[in-house]
Every structure is written in C-alpha cells, then in structure tokens.
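A common beginner's mistake is to predict each chain separately and then try to dock the pieces by hand. The better habit, illustrated here, is to supply every component at once so that their relative placement is modeled jointly.
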Amino acid sequence: MNIEDIRSILGAKYLVGEEWKDREVHTACGSDMMSDVLAFMKDQSVLLTGLCNLQVIRTCEMMDIICIVFVRGKLPDEAMIEMAKEKGIAVLSTGHRMFAACGMLYENGLRGGPDYK
Amino acid sequence: MSNMIHMSYEVPPGDFTRAGEASSNLKSSLKKMGVNPEIVRKVAIAMYEGEINMVIHATGGKIDVVVSPEEIEMVLKDQGPGIANIELAMQAGYSTAPDNIRNLGFGAGMGLPNMKKYSDEFKIESTVGVGTTVTMKVKME
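With all components supplied together, the output reads:
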C-alpha cells in the first residue's frame, strides 16, 4: 500500500506531500498518546491520530514515520504544516473517526507492528 | 580520543511546543555523520523522551552527547524536583504528569521505559530537591 492508496481508502485530502504519494507504507499505528507511538518502532509507517499539535510532527520525525493521517477532520496549524514539509512527512486529513479509519486500512491489508514487549 | 565528537544542547524551560529541538538537531547531525539509520532512530527516540521529561517535570536542563566509533552517549541533566521512587517511575504506565500534559499526548508513563528500551545502557540518578541525571548509551554496531 502506498500513501495515495491510504488517501483514497480514507477519502482523505493532502495537506502536505502529494508529491510523495507513491511512497510505500508497510505498517500503521493509531494513537493519541505520543509515548505509545514512541514505543513502537517500524520502518515506513503511517500514524493515525486525533491529536493535533507540534509534538505529533516531532514524534513522527524521531520515528521516521512517513505519513500522518489526522482523523475526525482535524486540521494542523501553519507551524505544523511547515515542520512536516521540512521533515519530508506527508500529512492527510480525513473526516472518519479513529476506529473507522484504522478498520478501513486494516480491511485493505495494512497491519500494525508486533505486540508491545 | 581525536575521533570523539562532543555536542551540547540547552533545553529551555516551560516551552512544551519547542521541546524536541535538541533531539531534532542531534538526529540531523548523526545522519550527516553517516551513522546507521536504525541507530540514529534509537538515539533520537531515547533523547526526545528525555527532553520532553525535562520540560514537563523540570525547568529544562542540559544534554551532553559524545559520539565515538563504538557508541553514542547522552547525559541529560536537570535541576528539577527529582524522583522520590525511581523503581516506581520506571514502571510502564506510571506517571505524575499533569492532565494538561496528557491532553498534549504525553504523560502515559512510557517515557522512562521507552528510554531504557531504546538504549543499550541506561542509568538514572536522582535526588529529591536537587535534580535528575539520566545517562544513556547506544552501541554503534
């Protein structure tokens, strides 16, 4: 699955990084708690979140997460958009809620990481 | 000794929005040095959790990093309130962070366990009323 597939499945729109739409995504993580996100380390992941502040972008930067999907129609502010651009992280926004958005991606074959140990 | 690189970062107090700048700067420096991306990520995550802690619980602090061919060492030092019970603080899920921090996506009680998880050596020393020093090492192999 690539970033464009995620956009299409979730009926989302690009806020940053339409030019990176062909990048492959291997795993996903859905959380509003950034420390939980930081406990999970996987390559080429997408993060689904309803949290909308600068630390979301920072967390993704540290984790090398390549795409963020804001659920429930959340929209990042200008500072977040700028930081995502600078760090090369694609940003999408969808009207779906967290549970539905994760379910739709799972149904289409995207999986999470291993259990936390 | 000549192939050791020292870096030092100030973490400003109180500014939660800006927290993470030191970790971000370290991450770019390590990438430029050509350090293995997997190692860079471990270092970045461990330091970022520490940096967030320094802003949430203390009044910022100072981070010293030494990069050698064998390992990357990070020493995070603050003059915050200190930790009364380190064993308890190390438990996954235990947190003393206030609700406003939880609303910002932190304070899940995963910070210290994550720092330990991503480092090969982890040491925490703390004195109530004096401050906390965390030393982490990540091996280069």
